[in-house]
Amino acid sequence: MAPSSPKFLAFSLFVLVVDHAMGQVGVSVDQVDEQVAIMVSKVVEHHLAGCHLVVATTTQHTPVFFSTLRKVASGVEAVVVVEMEALFTSQDSPAQQRLLQEVWGDARATCRALILNLNKDSHLAFRFLEATGVWQWPETRVVVVGERTQVKVVLHHPSLRNTIHTLYLAFYNLALYACEAHTPNTRLRMTRTEKARVCQQQQHVVAAARRESVEVYRRCLYCNNGDADIVFLYLWPLTSANNHHYHNQLFPERLENFMGHKFVVVTLPYFPFIAFEKESEEGGALSPRDSLNTRMINTMARCLNFTYMFREPLDGTWGVPTTGGNWTGIVGDLQHQLVDFSLDLTPTAARMEIISFTRIYTDDPLVILSLKPGPLPRYLALLRPFTRQLWLMVMMSTTTLGFTLWLLQKAWSWVSGGSGLWLSTAHFYIWGTMLENPPDNAPANLTSRVLFGLCLLTCMVINIGYRSSLIAHLTVQSKTQPINCFQDLLKEDNWAWGSFEFVGTTFLYFNESFDPLIQRIGNEKETLGASAGLERVLMGKFSFITSKTNLLTDVVSLYADRYGNIPFHISTTHYQIQGGDAWGVRKGAPFLRQLSKMTQRMIEVGMIDRWTKDVVYTHITLPRSRTHDAQNTVYSQESDDPVVLGLNHLQGAFYLLILGHSVSLLILLGENLTQYLACRGRTSPSTSPAGGEPRLVPHLLEENLV
């Protein structure tokens, strides 16, 4: 199972058994071995039932090892035995890594356990714990059985620095009571009889030691004013291994009280989520201001009893990957265990490989800020009921119908010998029908009448749709098309866009995307600050890309009028470049579950949304600028009262009427001019032979009379 598996993190349990050397002293230790094995087996029975067991040993031939293995093997799903001495003395490093990775296998057990057996030297034990990465999984349960002299050495070892449940069962060192042939003070004066008597006394002491209780210690992570300390629990008699009273008190650690522990928190300003003030220009500690994360951490500090200290990352960035697997900024500080946790950090797949995250509590998507759509000119209201494509279809269909009617009449006149229609007359027929003024004399033949009837039906549907849409466009002010997505930015002519300098997840989103559209937006954007970007938007032909919550705070504070209206349009498309906002936590932190649990409670009771709105509204100052009020009133004032149409609404109709009169006048002038030129061409300027009055050409005179 992978180290990041939730099942492994939740249920993995280590049992570390440190054997004490008793086989070299000449004392029978069978009963002691059996008692040790019984006690460990009872711990396994109560806390490791059904676990996948890994047994690692430094020396294979120890009585305690075999007694313990025999006792616990019956209560677990599987047993894997690893010889540490052979493992770490091997020169094949890839084989070592492969074996360490496969130690836990892929068992289907509900938990996992490890029994580590070794002699006095604990070097291999600590090396094994570091190699298996116990510090990355704080939920593991560690039980150490060993000599009293190694309590502090084991429980304060860095490999167990994050382990929440660590017990130490301290037995007496029976080697101290072993039968020795002489002592430093009686080496020359003791006889054989005296030596035998001393050995017999020491054996009685050993027998008494067998009946002594086991001293149970535990490592408390946050006991000594918030620091780690060793706490003595109770004496556990060897003969009372079946007593449930002792088993229920083995793992009391719940981390519901951090005892005033001081956490080091790294963060960067990002209002309204994070806000702080620097205590000095040279850096150092930060003074938190009112913000969403400040309210969250203050609530957690009161409930869990801890304190904290803010500081900025060493390089002042959120964090991006560099060469060698290292990260910069906040992520880098967490990766190298320099701080405990961070505020408001975005989880990504790459970041989750090196640090942990709490429960996601909010999100802040990217939006596009543009100038609010302005009103379209009223004189074009007659054209707006139909789109360009629909107007084009009406023109084409009307022309086609007129031409078809002319062809049908032409064919009918050629067959029947009757009179046909001029092409212009056929078109006037169709256009008159479209304008609800059809001609009185309909076509005589049946074919043209069927076509004319279908034309009437089509024109009726088009006219009904046009009239209903025209009323809406005359009463409601139409506006320009808003910018709602990245595609709209590229469709506009001579349009530019800008944003802050891309950092963190925003930088990764625009630079690691395979979408050509996203790449183009990122490559062609201008880098601007908030004030400069908003001013450019007010000038027109420009959009500003930034996060929604942070953007609203600046916009409302600077440009809202007394009614809360702003002259900007926020895109309806929200680009979720991240999974949400959470707190970043260093790998293996034992307080991760408590922070996530508190965050989940705040989400469930609705405090996150309430605090976010409250922080934004508290820090917004609405200006009273008459310029902004006048600018916003044009676009924001709407009324539910009936709209009375006036000259402003119908100006397009009068413009159309004036256009019709002008075109008619031009056509009249053109016809008269054409007729005048034709008359002059047909008039003969010749005179009579005697020089009398000029006479007209006979055929011209006849035509004029007709």
Automatic annotation (TrEMBL):
One of its GO terms (cellular component) is plasma membrane. It is a multi-pass membrane protein. This is Glutamate receptor ionotropic, kainate 4-like 10. The keyword Glycoprotein applies. GO terms for biological process: detection of stimulus involved in sensory perception. It is found in: Cell membrane. PANTHER family: IONOTROPIC RECEPTOR 20A-RELATED, IONOTROPIC RECEPTOR 60A. The chain crosses the membrane at residues 390-408, 415-434, 446-466. Residues 1-23 form the signal peptide. The keyword Transport applies. It comes from Homarus americanus (American lobster). GO terms for molecular function: ligand-gated monoatomic ion channel activity. InterPro entries: Glu/Gly-bd, Insect_Ionotropic_Sensory_Rcpt, Iontro_rcpt_C. Its main location: membrane. Keywords: Cell membrane, Glycoprotein, Ion channel, Ion transport, Ligand-gated ion channel, Membrane, Receptor, Signal, Transmembrane, Transmembrane helix, Transport. Pfam families: Lig_chan (PF00060), Lig_chan-Glu_bd (PF10613). The gene is Grik4-L10. Residues 272-336 form the Ionotropic glutamate receptor L-glutamate and glycine-binding domain. Belongs to the glutamate-gated ion channel (TC 1.A.10.1) family.
